[in-house]
Amino acid sequence: MSLWQYANPVKFLHLSGKIVPLATVVSAVCLIAGLYWGYFLTPDDYKQGSTVKIIYIHVPSALVAINAWFMMLVASLIWLVRRHHVSVLASKAASHVGVVMTLIALITGALWGQPMWGTWWAWDPRLTSFLILFLFYLGYIALWAAIDNPDTAADLTSVLCIVGSVFAVLSRYAVNFWNQGLHQGASLSMDKAEHVSDVFYYPLLLSIAGFILLFVVLTLVGTRTEIRQRRAKALLARERG
Amino acid sequence: MIALLIRDLRLAMRAGGGFGLSLAFFLIVVVLVPFGVGPEMGLLSRIAPGILWVGALLACLLSLDRIFALDFEDGSLDLLATSPLPAEGIVTIKSLAHWLTTGLPLVLMAPVLGVLLGLPERGYYWIIVSLAVGTPALSVIGTFGAALTVGIKRGGLLLSLLVLPLYVPTLIYGAELARRGTQGMDTSTPLFMLAGITCAVTAMLPFASAAVLRINLR
Amino acid sequence: MIALLIRDLRLAMRAGGGFGLSLAFFLIVVVLVPFGVGPEMGLLSRIAPGILWVGALLACLLSLDRIFALDFEDGSLDLLATSPLPAEGIVTIKSLAHWLTTGLPLVLMAPVLGVLLGLPERGYYWIIVSLAVGTPALSVIGTFGAALTVGIKRGGLLLSLLVLPLYVPTLIYGAELARRGTQGMDTSTPLFMLAGITCAVTAMLPFASAAVLRINLR
Amino acid sequence: MTMRVTNLSVSRGGRTLLEGVTFDVAAGQALILRGPNGLGKTTLLRSLAGLQRPEVGQVDLAEDDAVYAGHADGIKSTLTVRENITFWARVFGTSDIAAAISMFALDDLVDRAGGMLSAGQKRRLGLARLMVTGRKFWMLDEPTVSLDHASVAQFATMIRAHLAAGGSAIIATHIDLGLGDDAQVLDLSQFRATTPKLHASEEAFL
Amino acid sequence: MTMRVTNLSVSRGGRTLLEGVTFDVAAGQALILRGPNGLGKTTLLRSLAGLQRPEVGQVDLAEDDAVYAGHADGIKSTLTVRENITFWARVFGTSDIAAAISMFALDDLVDRAGGMLSAGQKRRLGLARLMVTGRKFWMLDEPTVSLDHASVAQFATMIRAHLAAGGSAIIATHIDLGLGDDAQVLDLSQFRATTPKLHASEEAFL
Ligand code: HEM
Ligand SMILES: Nc1ncnc2c1ncn2[C@@H]1O[C@H](COP(=O)(O)OP(=O)(O)OP(=O)(O)O)[C@@H](O)[C@H]1O
Ligand SMILES: Nc1ncnc2c1ncn2[C@@H]1O[C@H](COP(=O)(O)OP(=O)(O)OP(=O)(O)O)[C@@H](O)[C@H]1O
Ligand SMILES: [Mg+2]
Ligand SMILES: [Mg+2]
Hints:
Chain A is mostly helical and 241 residues long. Chain A has helices spanning 9-40, 55-82, 85-117, 125-146, 150-178, 198-240. Chain A has six helices and no strands. Chain A is globular. The structure holds protoporphyrin IX containing FE, adenosine-5'-triphosphate (2 copies) and magnesium ion (2 copies). One magnesium ion binds at residues 41-42, 141 of chain D.
């Protein structure tokens, strides 16, 4: 009765089948509540004006985009160590969600940058390392797409994910050294100096929660489809041989 | 091992072996930039170190897919895989050969091309240093990417896409080193980091590359 | 004729067909430059039009050897040569296909990448115009170079060296056009010249390419 | 309508390989070229197909009557079998690919990518392509390489059909195709260049 | 020292091709694999040589005893014949290349670039390479492709010599090598996968 039993595709399908609907509802609630609250019940920022409200999409998506990669890293390690197909397929599914989130963060950021910094894009460390993260996602996904033997693909992408993570951290430092940026610091950090004022804080938390749950849902669904595809292929192969 | 190294070097030297390829490409980039950016020497000499580094990196990037692709297509790689050579040995030799036929020439060529971009006096020394310290990392990282994409038909595109983000830290520190050096600023940090990257990468990555190569040849 | 065009496009679309190749490379160049040159937007936006043009040209240059090399290696070209298609037809189709799979995407991609280099507002329009007018010339000239080097094993290097000087005029006028446009200066002359080059080249060069191709396949 | 080759000599890499090659092939005839490795069969066939200039002598054959199938099959690995063959059909302005496909039992492979074929399947596709060219004179260089017995037999029947339809074939091969007396055999060893001739363009320097 | 293959099944592109393949080859024996195109000979040989993971079953053979020679000869066109062969000799830690070269009458080609060889000459070089590996078990995939009769005979003698020296060979071919009863013949058709088995890793999904 270990937790690993859910690494069995079939068992996983059963379990996730139960989780998904529930998670969907909760995330929907959080998102609607958070975004509504954020957009209609909070005052405009005194210096940013109403543009500040992009934060409710920008920050959550950015957070998810980054943490999705961590999740992929763990999943890849699990695959390499314990050879559980579910984990690597989950990683694959997560990459698709992650890349979209990254794109959203980039675009909302750019939209925000225009009024705030008067430019769509600046080679600010945060932004730059995000662009790099985006490239990592693209590479990971492309590698999956390029290899037809699923197991080989799983192995290779996992190694790439691990090596990539190391280099991602490395380039984060490199970029920081390369350019001191104008981008916000961590707004969730607890010291008051950094902290965005409470009015924005709680709705932000809500929508972050919503985004995270959304990520979970999408990843689960993606994994389920991946598994189903493999099942279908397997059954088909059994049919015609 | 030695035999493999010698063969690869020889292949590179022979006509069409792509020994000149990277050099030529380096030259092309550096020659084209003034046409594109415009002739003002002030501007050019400001961007010179950066352009030289970017050019060298691109030249490196383009020569990567020759590391394994040729041997794979003509079946040599299958034979090497069944040969007594360990995969680690193969990848190490391959990246060494790649550096000798690509990185080294680039290092030597850079100052010459620096003239075209009006690189300031002090720059020459630092361009050579930064490239000499940095290019080995490029070769080793590139070998990893090449090993990942062995067997993928015409994986050239994928290869560059995979390697690009991996190259970023090296490029940043390398170019930063060259630029600071040229402007006479303190260079210790980037030099230290660049050397660090090269050492670390050369020590670790070959194992990853070997693992990946084995996966691909099984 | 149509069949050939369709096939080439299809081949380009399929995995590894190198359709994305040029785009990816374009992206790579544009992303790398800031890392090399440094992050100051002021400097970057000054060199933006030039860098974009150089990047596009390099991307074009790199995709040239796919025009004939692949067909030559697998023997398709021998068959095409003995087929009813006239050599002129083949080269024209080939360069058309090359433009559709390389030049056009570059044109569409350029403004997006312009953002990364902080291209000034006015620049977007002119980058698109200059590339749209200029890239066809690049494809046609490139096809000529490719035809010259058919049959030379791994002629990639030679090809780039041959084509580079042929590209210079296009690059100069193209980049000049983009730069002037961006700075709001008068653009009539470069625009006129660029258009002239494209028209002339498209009208004449295919015959030269066809002749060269015939010589190479005899 | 026959093909007449008179006193032809061919060279490769500056060395003359065969000289005085003379034969003619009438419509409905097949000619089998034999000779040891490196004698010059491939080179000769390429010259006959007009892919290479002969030294001296001439080949009387309408430019667009010949088609050459060499060691390389010209198969695109990313295109499916059907796409591959349809393309050649359209290039040569013919339409009926069904016959070609069924002739070499490619029917259940039509939708597989060219790169996923086994050696013999590739070669079969290469041969099927001949049928869609609609050309009269086939120059075949070792057509049966890596074909199994059944396919070799199929190949023989294809050739017979082609001959019966008034076509001709010149085939360089080392094995026995079982064409029986539908085909004469020509041993090229007799034409091996003895007195080391020089390439015409080299002559100019003497 | 024999090689024992028990209940092996191999797959390519996700489809199981052969299953229950069982045989053993003792030192000094040769085994000839027969079967129609696309049956799975190449796939099987690659699995035996360790270039591909078998589905189930196992191959008892010391890792570094086998050498595989496939459709591609691994010849570098810019290296001369001698350079090509010397390289492989050094990689496999042997030294005597003279025997290999003379065995296939490559003597007067040693200084020619690999790319300037004819189809058959290339193949002969590819075979000569086998001799310098010094490996006991040869996995040969259609070794005689585009060889002329003389060379095929040469090949047979080489195999005999190899067997006499206590080596073994597993050869997939469509033609008769004239090895006589030095070799047993194994028809693979009997092992064709009937009840379509699934790739082990696919099983997990059912
Ligand atoms: C394309 C441009 C931009 C990109 C790619 C971008 C990216 C990011 C990233 C990666 C984070 C980090 C999330 C985390 O680590 O917690 C973030 C957070 C944030 N961004 Fe941006 N950003 C961009 C533009 C902007 C602009 C213009 C503003 C407002 C002036 C802005 C305000 C913030 C704030 C307030 C946070 C929250 C800080 C935090 O939670 O860490 N961003 N953005
Ligand atoms: N790269 C590939 N991907 C998927 N399937 C393939 C691939 N290559 C070959 N196949 C299929 O695997 C099967 C076996 O191929 P294999 O090359 O082993 O056959 P073979 O017995 O060697 O045939 P031949 O005698 O023609 O060489 C064939 O049906 C082929 O279509
Ligand atoms: N690219 C080349 N450059 C120079 N010489 C070549 C080239 N290709 C082949 N040769 C030489 O020309 C001669 C004839 O080659 P060719 O391929 O015509 O022989 P072949 O009769 O087809 O032999 P095979 O039966 O092995 O195919 C050979 O001696 C070969 O060494
Ligand atoms: Mg031949
Ligand atoms: Mg085979």
